[in-house]
Write a structure and sequence with these properties.
Elements: E1 11-17, H1 21-32, E2 35-39, E3 43-47, E4 53-58, E5 72-79, H2 83-95, E6 101-104, E7 108-114, E8 120-126, E9 134-135, E10 138-139, H3 148-152, E11 167-174, H4 178-188, E12 192-197, E13 201-205, E14 213-216, E15 232-239, H5 243-255, E16 261-263, E17 266-270, E18 276-280
Parallel strand pairs: 1-4, 5-8, 11-14, 15-18
Antiparallel strand pairs: 1-15, 2-3, 3-4, 5-11, 6-7, 7-8, 9-10, 12-13, 13-14, 16-17, 17-18
Length: about 280
């Protein structure tokens, strides 16, 4: 899990908008296995370890369904500590009739679901870093069928929700222009491109992780940004390492014309597709 520690820049929390807070709370606790850390009338913060906020769900006062193609969330990705944990959640999904997709990405083994508002979720486990294939600065990733039976052999049938050392592994965003997104995240925030999928997707990271952020235009090329009250992504948070790094990021963001606003514990910016990024210590 060293990819999700300083000095790397990594996703700590994802904040999504939902149409029915009670329904979403039930889903995220009973199906995904989160615990509630804080709850208010229209907002809840969810955790795996009882201390660290990983997911925040918000019900806007006036909720709008996401009716057309927009930018925003493709999926957020929950990283489990071990393959046994993945086996146990597969058994849990199977026992409760939860539909999911599954893929082997060579660097990782992943399950895919949608919450009641069709917010995309990935639940995954990384293969050992020693098994990843790098060619210079590019990591080899594929999308192939997942060998579920091989994973299930490692399970012990014990599912008690998300393990305490679960982290937010990455976020995958739908953007309107890939070149503009690449400039923002690499020149502005200092990420490195580690994989390209043709002209429509790229994956970026710090510290040679396979990706902390995915970016694609598969369903969102030239699309408008998500409406303020539409279900979907509200914000996501990245961990800052130190004040010097924060100052450099602000300078680089302003140089490419991105907005910078100071907030408690850090600053806020917005990518060219309208995705709001919070940078916090």
């Amino acid at each position: 899990m060293h990819f999700h520690e300083k000095p790397n820049t990594y996703v700590t929390n994802v904040e999504i908008k939902v149409s029915d807070l009670h329904r979403s709370l039930t889903y995220y606790q009973e199906v995904i296995g989160f615990k509630v850390l804080h709850q208010e009338a229209h907002k809840a913060t969810l955790t795996a370890d009882g201390k660290t906020a990983l997911l925040t769900i918000v019900q806007p006062e006036t909720v709008e369904e996401k009716t057309s193609l927009t930018t925003g969330l493709y999926h957020f990705a929950i990283l489990l500590p071990t393959r046994r944990d993945l086996a146990n959640i597969i058994s849990h999904f199977h026992n409760n009739g939860v539909y999911f997709g599954a893929s082997d990405h060579d660097v990782s083994e992943a399950l895919y679901l949608n919450d009641p508002d069709k917010n995309g979720i990935e639940v995954y486990v990384d293969r050992p870093e020693s098994e990843w294939t790098w060619q210079f600065d590019q990591v080899h990733m594929v999308t192939e069928p997942l060998k579920i039976h091989s994973i299930l052999e490692e399970g012990d049938g014990r599912w008690n929700g998300l393990p305490t050392n679960t982290v937010m592994g990455h976020i995958h965003l739908s953007v309107s222009n890939l070149a503009a997104a690449e400039e923002f995240y690499t020149k502005g925030l200092g990420f490195e491109v580690v994989t390209r999928y043709g002209a429509q997707a790229l994956f970026i990271s710090t510290g040679r992780y396979h990706h902390h952020i995915g970016l694609n235009t598969w369903h969102s090329e030239n699309a408008p940004k998500l409406g303020e009250n539409m279900v979907g992504l509200k914000t996501f948070s990245l961990r800052l390492d130190n004040e010097e790094q924060a100052a450099t990021m602000k300078e680089n963001l302003r140089a490419i014309g991105a907005p910078v606003t100071n907030i408690d514990g850090g600053f806020q910016t917005e990518d060219p597709a309208g995705n709001v990024v919070l940078l916090k210590f």
